[in-house]
Structure formats: structure tokens, C-alpha cells
Amino acid sequence: MPEQPESPSSDANQPDAVRIERDGAIATIVIDREASLNALSPEVLDALAAAVAELAEAGPSLRGVLLVGAGGRAFVAGADIRAMRELTPDEGAAVAAKGHAVAAALEALPVPVIACVDGFALGGGLELALACDLIYATDASSFGQPEVALGLIPGFGGTVRLPRAVGAARAKELIYTGRRIGIDEAVDAGLVVRRFADREALLAGARETVELAAKQAWTAVGIAKRVLVAAAGTPTATAVELEIAGFRDAFSTADHDEGIAAFLEKRAPEFPGH
Length: 274
Known about the structure:
Layout: E1 18-23, E2 26-31, H1 42-56, E3 64-69, E4 74-76, H2 81-84, H3 89-108, E5 113-117, E6 120-122, H4 124-130, E7 134-138, E8 142-144, H5 158-166, H6 168-177, E9 181-182, H7 183-188, E10 194-196, H8 199-214, H9 218-231, H10 236-251, H11 254-264
Parallel strand pairs: 2-3, 3-5, 4-6, 5-7, 6-8, 7-10
Antiparallel strand pairs: 1-2, 8-9
């Protein structure tokens, strides 16, 4: 297995390790610890949680989120190994809970969230990307769950979301071996939805997708995401009931009224966002 990039923690407490950049209806969450390959220390996880919580309050003014890592080497190279070295088992579990809380918060945002991967997405970095709705990546990207080489297992959702993304057998192989895969295999496995030649094309492609979704009914996109997340991994009968409930909820929105009226009147809809 290729050696995992080391993640120094010298910049773990820098004030802008996570920031939000707004451009109209699109928000970009930037993890900016370039010197440590954007590693996820407990402090960075707290900052990510705060950023996602802020965006959760934006309402219909927010139509999509891009999640990126600073620099050109890594999306997120993993959890901050140096920061984890002295943790007790209970403290390790607490860090895992922080990672799961961030993932759940990303899944709860009622808008599309795209992980824009340029470089390494390993360990906690891959788990963070898996919590997003879509993974877009450059040709220079690679992916893996190398925790077993450290005597650990994935702790931020890898054993849960990776099988859903690539199937149980392939997920087991990747987790048991710690093997890293490149962009070709990641696309073939269905892990990466779209690939791009470079970072500029990646961000442009992600924005294009978000802008297309932004033209649709905000409430409908949010309900669809809620159902998709809740139904993942459930029995078919449970998933069907979740979809029926979501379909019912959509009927109660003004966006539904406007969408139907616009279709019948052969005009472009002007969705009110509620």
C-alpha cells in the first residue's frame, strides 16, 4: 500500500482553518490547512460543524454548497494523526463522534453539497466527501481508507457510507487492505460522479451542477435529499413509506402550486421557495 501522506498539526489552531465564501446563492466551504494537507484535527471538525450550522440557517438564499480543500495536493488527506496520538479510547470515540456530527450536518443541509476533490481524499477525507451528495474530482485525485495501517478502522462513517457508494464487496476490499485507488477506478466504482482535467474545470463543473439545481424548486430539492438520505440502507418497504411521506409534503408547498401552474400555463416557473 502506498504510504499515507503525513499530516503535521502545526497549523491545527490557525483562525481561518475553515472558512465560508459566498457567491450569490452558492457557498464554498474551504478547509485551509495546506501545510498539513487539510487534515481533520478536532479543532477543524468543530470549525466545520460551525460552518455547516451557519449555512443551515440561510434558508432559500442558499442553493448549493461546494466543499473544497486549499492548495493543489489534497482535498483532505485524513484525520490529524499527530493530534490523535495521545488520545485515550474514550477521547478517540469523542473525535469519531465529532466527525459523524459533521457528516450528518452535511447530509441535513436541504441543498446539494458537492465534494470537489483535487488530490488526496484519504481516511477522514474520503469519509467527509462521502457525506456530500456528489463527489467530483480531478484526474490527479486518489482515494482510500488506510486506517488499518494505523491499527484503526474508519471512524467518520466509512464503514457505513462507502458500501453504499461502491458496494459491500469493494468497500470491504478497500477497508481491509487500505489500498488507495486513482481516478479511473474511482469513476468505475461509482465513487466519483464526474472527473475533470484540473481544479479550474472541477470548480466550474460543480458550479454548473449547483446552478442547474438552483433553477428548480428549493423545497422539492430539499425534500428529495431528505428522503434519499433517510432511505439509504433501509428495507424497501421503509424506503417506500419515506418517499410517500415526502411526496405528500411536497404537495403542501407553494413551490408545488407554482410549478404545476407554470407547467399548465406554459411559462417558466417563479418558485417562491416555500
